[in-house]
């Protein structure tokens, strides 16, 4: 049996499909499973132990995309897939699913596109307080696969050994001690509606940096907000003053594999509802997730319950959640109402819980030895 999975575009959405990938491998252990993804998110699934193949869809602009898609559709059709699951549901992904010629094609009930699938799954348009992993998992219902459980099927992204080596070299060059308590703050998001203000990140970071001599802060940002890490790190250094500003050690843009390796080494990750937050959820690092216009019920880290996760939300607002196209009040209050001291307190709780769990584990190991 040959299975094709399709999820184009965003990193976080691809991460949210990884529990379903694991479940499909469990359901069809002998199948050849391929994943069609765009380059931006390819690192999420490239080294997945549950996949046999990752196909990267080109995304060139203009007429070149039409040419690329026609060539890609021909390649997929020649492969002879038996089953296609379209986790995306957009016009392009639906068309690619249809042109694959697979005898069974599962997708969402979307006006104008449902006819391209043989099995159609309902997808309500309203912003429900239901996790995105469960929304993606709905496509497995026609295959009689049981409901998801984060303890059994967490989000996944394998760590790349070469990326780990690059990150280790970068940290060493920055003078970060091997035993440093690294705190990663990802200060950007592809969607500007989800960006907690840089001043708030800087204030929270300064509070956290003052909390321990071993702490070293690393600011990261992505191509959608180039330079945000450097700008926010500079503000944090100013707040810390000459005596403590060396605790801010890096402000850089890492590629996705490097970011996964960096967070895997960190004592704590702090970030908003964007791809890096969900990459962080694939590691064992404690996480502080900052939500503005989106709901934690829909996008909180999907991971084993024993892993430390702190969620910060603004509380109930009549305009929240929103479609993130226009701020109705005009002041982005869902983000600006979250105080830096609230996030800093969540960070301290997460670090304390992780330390107590680590100490308990060490005591158990010592007793066993």
Task: Describe the SSE topology.
Layout lengths: L1 E5 L4 H17 L4 E7 L3 H4 L7 E5 L5 H17 L3 E4 L4 H9 L4 E5 L10 E3 L10 H6 L23 H13 L7 E6 L11 H12 L5 E6 L7 H17 L3 E5 L3 H10 L2 E5 L2 H6 L6 E4 L5 H4 L9 E4 L20 H4 L3 H29 L1
How would you describe this structure to a colleague?
This protein is of the alpha/beta class and about 375 residues long. The protein is built from 13 helices and twelve strands. About 40% of the residues lie in helices and about 15% in strands. α6 (about 160-175) crosses α9 (about 255-265), α7 (about 200-210) packs parallel to α8 (about 230-245) and α7 packs across α13. The longest helix has 29 residues, at about 340-369. It starts with a strand and ends with a helix.
The low-confidence parts are 359-369
What is the CATH class designation of the largest domain? Alpha Beta
Count the domains.
Answer: 2
The percent of residues in helical segments reads 40-55%
